[in-house]
Amino acid sequence: MAVRPESSVADVTVAGARRHTARNVAAGLGVVLALLVAVLATSDPSGSRLGESPLLGRPAPELAGTSLLGGGDFELASQSGRWVLVNFFATWCVPCQAEHPDLLRFDAAHAEAGDARVVSVVFSDDPDDVARFFEQRGGSWPVLDDAVGRAALEWGVTGVPESFLVGPDGVVRAKVTGGVEYEKLEDLLARARGGGGRSG
Question: Domain map of the chain by residue range?
Answer without folding.
Answer: 1-43, 49-193
